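User: Predict the full complex structure for these chains.
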Amino acid sequence: MPRLTTTAQLEERRAKILAARDPSKPCIAVCGGAACDGLDSAAVATAFAAEIAAQGVAAKVDFRVTGCHGYCNKGPNVLVGPGDICYFEVRPEDVAEVVASAAKGEVVDRLVYHDPASGEKAVHMHEVPFYKHQMRILTGDIPRIDPTRIDDYIAVGGYSALAKALSKMTSDQVLQEVKKANLRGRGGGGFPAGLKWETTKNAPEKTKYVIVNGHEGESAAFMDRAMLTGNPHRVLEGLIIGAYAIGAQQGYIYTRHDSPSMAKHITAALEQAKELGLLGKNILGSGFDFEVELHFDVGIFVSGESSALMRSIEGNAPEPRPKYIRTSVSGIWDKPSNLNNVETWANVPEIINRGADWFTSIGSEKSKGTKLVSLSGHVVNSGVVEVPMGTPLRTIVFDIGGGVPGGRAPKAIHFGGAMGGSIPISMIDAPLDFNGMSKLGAPIGAGGLLVMDEDTDMIEMARYLLDFLVKESCGKCVPCREGMYQMLKILTNIVEGRGRKFDLERLADLTEVTSLGSLCALGKTSSDPLKSMLRYFKPEFEARIAAGSAAGSEAK
Amino acid sequence: MSEQMIEGKDVIDGIIEKYRGKPGALIHALTEIQHENRWLPREVMQKVADALEVPFSQAMQIASFYKTFSLTPKGRHDVHVCTGMTCHLRGAASLMAKVEEITGLKPGETDTEAKFTLEAGSCLGSCSIAPELIVDGKHYGRMTPERAADVLKQYE
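Assistant: Here is the predicted structure of the two-chain assembly.
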């Protein structure tokens, strides 16, 4: 690939790619996302490649393996364009029929969505209930691109925002646009990204770093992986634009070691971007230099915490630092370091391309744009969902998720993994909003939404979450290391019917100390799920303790 | 531990050479060696520490802190039961109990024939097809205790 030295050359390349493509030519996209992969989509993809060759229709039908389409539990997913015909639960034996129909422009009726109640058909993506209530700004391109081919990304408009930023905007203008868009961090805190960028930009040191946090340690969260694996260039483009605004020379992508396809796709993206001159010296002839390195976590939850993550990049054990030292001013090797989550970076190109006013027209009053949600648990339709901020949870759980399977009633909604919280189903009309959900005690966190049915034992759930955190605490702060251990002991006793009077008071004491006396969010928020469960499901705890003490005295 | 017992010694030496004199690359070096050899023998740890010019104690701190690193030999096959939130809600505990029964192992253990190493882990991100059993990186979704034996039978 020849190096692009001006923005005009990028546009020429885009025009050439598009000219070589026929938009009316059918294209079969097989999902290779994490869940589809677990349902052996690889066998389906192999069958497609073989079948297209066997039927001799390679000139008539395109084929690609893509990242996550979204509707994970209906996998392996296959999407046929143009028109986005959705096929679900496709098996290798269905492949011959799909290829033949695609070549003829027909639809295989038996593989499209059928409403489980009415039997009504939905052929196209925008008609399928799971997709039709979504707004797929970040994820919409994923089924349209092969993530290992930069030209696929360029074909859907990729790197046009970078070209615009570098050629038509000063770094200050880019920063102002992101500030004006009020893009809030998607990793959990909801802190305005523009303000964070500004702090790093204004820090006196010349060497600055920007970081993509793709660790995604939150349990039941899988949307960042879907984003980064399915469209790595979009995240990278956001990062390069951010680096330009901030004045950083070096970027890091920090992610999981246990997703081989994600590592492969990011590595390929970095290589191709470098080859085209979108990374390296004098990017698109602008005089701006920027390099990116890929780093992996080595299997511990706390390494997703920002200061711990930075220690990890330096090659040290990931112990968090006190929060009064701001990483935006003193991060990696004590240089100013701006860290944002995968989804936050992925939002940047669109903000630059369409402007802050467009972005702020989507979402709720205090939370703008769309939000990726990983929908799972006791829910009929599970997968990666993208909705405007402010969407009522009811829409996500019922209209998109299809409610609870097996005719059971929902009991609670849990947000934010092991450091999140649970709210009762009676609050289902609450909107998806950073501030609103925090007030209810179930902060969005990174966006893992878990539906729990009527048979779920909330006390056991609280115990399970603490058990997870006890194993993940790095051990630096005593209140976190020991406090959580004591809470776990009490909760285990309650679950096993050995609860005692005043256990709830003891738990309340311990949650307070642990929250106050820990350096990082792991300890500070470790008892958040427990607090929310005590807030909304206290009678369950009291009844269990009462039953336990009664059983105990009978045994004597 | 004699040197013959370390598979791919040349590859490991190559990895160490690549990072010689770069203390910041400690995790990179250990990760690559872990992937190659699947555990970190003491001799190798010492070599890494010497070559990268970090104290042996620091190399050990990293290797014992992160869960990816193993300081003991592992079985030929990694058996992983996801115990993340969704898998937990959808029956990971009974799946784990069954896998423990089949393999005779508790999480973290390796059998005497070095066939399986059993691990519990969360969250591997395939929540939509929970609960999950993962063997050598291959995901088996919607796993039931009944089907677990059939899956494990395929591995020798």
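Chain B has two domains: 3-65, 77-153.
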